[in-house]
C-alpha cells in the first residue's frame, strides 16, 4: 500500500525544527562544558577574590579583584589569600544567595572574601621576625627590611611605621606570620599574639599553611588597576631556617624583647 507523502511545507517545518533542536543541543553542550572547565579551573588552578577592607592599601584597594593561584607555591614577601580558620574576623561570615553561591563555585562570580583574609607573608616556618630595630625597621632572621615599596603612604608622603607593637617571634613549623601593608588598619598576626587558645597563648597569630589558598598574583579588576603582583626585593637573601622551625612558637612582646 503506497505511503502518503507529507506536504512540502510540513517537511520543511520538521527539517527546521530538527536543525533548531540540534543547534540548541550543541549550545547546551558548549555551555555545560564551559562551566565544567570553569569549575575545574577554580578548584585546581586559580580563584578570584574581592578585597573587602583597607588592610592592604595602597597595594590593594577596597573592591579590587585579585587572582589567587592554587598551582603556585608562595614564599616570604608574597601576598596570600587564606581561610579564616583562626576566626580573626569573628562571627559568622555573610553568605550569598544560593544562585550566587553556584555562580561563585563555578568561577563566574568572585569570592566575596567574607571568610577569607589577604595579607603579606613576613615570616615562614623557622623565621624570627622582630620589630623594630634601632633604625625603626622590621627584621627577619637578622636582616632589616626596607618596606618603603609597599607600606601605606600618608598624605605627607611618609610611610606608616612598620609596627606600633614591639615584638619578637619565631614562627612554628607549618605556619606563617602575616601582616597587612596598611599597618595602622590591619588586624594581622601581631594582634593575636596574646590570644588565649586551645593550643597555647598566641598560637592563633600564626596562619596554618594548609589554610592558604594561594598567592595573589595579579589585580584583574578594575581595568584601571590591572597589574602583576611581584615579591618585593626587600625579602631577597634572607636565610632559610625552615629545618629549625619549632613545634611551638616563641613569642615575646614589649620593648624588652631581644632585637637584632
How many beta strands in the DSSP annotation?
13
Strand % is: 15-25%
- Quickly give the CATH architecture: Ribbon
Kindly name the structural category. alpha+beta
Determine Rg (CA atoms, Å).
26 Å
* Largest beta-sheet characterization: 8 strands, antiparallel
Which sequence of SSEs, written as H and E, runs from N to C? HEEEHEEEEEEEEEE
3D architecture notes:
- The chain has 260 residues and is of the alpha+beta class.
- It has one domain: Umud Fragment, subunit A (Ribbon), CATH 2.10.109.
- It has two helices and 13 strands; from the N terminus they run αβββαββββββββββ.
- The protein is elongated.
Key attributes of the depicted protein:
260 residues; alpha+beta; Umud Fragment, subunit A; 8-stranded antiparallel β-sheet; 5-stranded antiparallel β-sheet; 2 helices; 13 strands; 22% strand
Structure summary:
The chain is an alpha+beta fold. The chain is built from two helices and 13 strands, in the order H-E-E-E-H-E-E-E-E-E-E-E-E-E-E. The strands form two sheets. Strands 1, 2, 3, 4, 9, 10, 11 and 12 form an eight-stranded antiparallel sheet that branches. Strands 7-6-5-8-13 form a five-stranded antiparallel sheet, with no helix packed on it.
Amino acid at each position: 500500500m503506497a505511503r502518503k507523502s507529507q506536504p512540502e511545507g510540513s517537511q520543511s517545518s520538521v527539517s527546521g525544527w530538527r536543525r533548531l533542536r540540534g543547534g540548541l543541543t550543541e549550545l547546551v553542550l558548549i555551555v555545560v562544558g564551559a562551566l565544567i572547565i570553569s569549575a575545574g579551573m577554580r578548584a585546581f588552578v586559580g580563584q578570584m577574590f574581592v578585597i573587602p577592607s583597607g588592610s592592604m592599601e595602597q597595594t590593594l584597594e577596597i573592591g579590587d579583584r585579585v587572582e589567587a593561584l592554587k598551582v603556585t607555591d608562595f614564599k616570604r614577601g608574597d601576598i596570600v589569600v587564606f581561610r579564616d580558620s583562626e576566626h580573626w574576623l569573628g562571627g559568622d561570615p555573610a553568605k550569598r544567595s544560593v544562585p550566587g553561591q553556584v555562580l561563585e563555585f563555578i568561577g563566574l562570580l568572585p569570592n566575596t572574601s567574607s571568610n577569607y583574609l589577604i595579607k603579606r607573608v613576613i615570616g615562614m616556618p623557622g623565621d624570627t621576625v622582630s620589630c623594630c630595630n634601632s633604625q625603626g625597621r622590621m627584621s627577619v632572621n637578622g636582616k632589616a627590611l626596607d618596606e618603603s615599596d609597599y607600606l601605606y603612604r600618608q598624605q605627607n608622603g611618609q610611610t606608616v611605621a612598620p609596627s606600633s607593637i614591639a615584638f619578637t617571634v619565631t614562627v612554628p613549623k607549618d605556619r606563617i606570620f602575616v601582616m597587612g601593608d596598611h599597618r595602622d588598619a590591619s588586624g594581622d598576626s601581631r594582634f593575636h599574639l596574646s590570644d588565649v587558645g586551645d593550643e597555647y597563648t598566641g598560637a592563633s597569630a600564626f596562619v596554618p599553611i594548609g589554610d592558604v589558598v594561594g598567592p595573589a598574583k595579579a589585580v584583574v579588576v578594575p581595568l584601571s588597576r590591572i597589574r602583576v603582583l611581584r615579591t618585593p626585593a626587600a625579602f631577597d637573601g634572607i636565610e632559610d631556617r625552615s629545618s629549625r622551625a619549632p613545634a611551638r612558637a616563641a613569642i615575646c612582646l614589649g620593648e624588652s624583647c631581644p632585637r637584632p
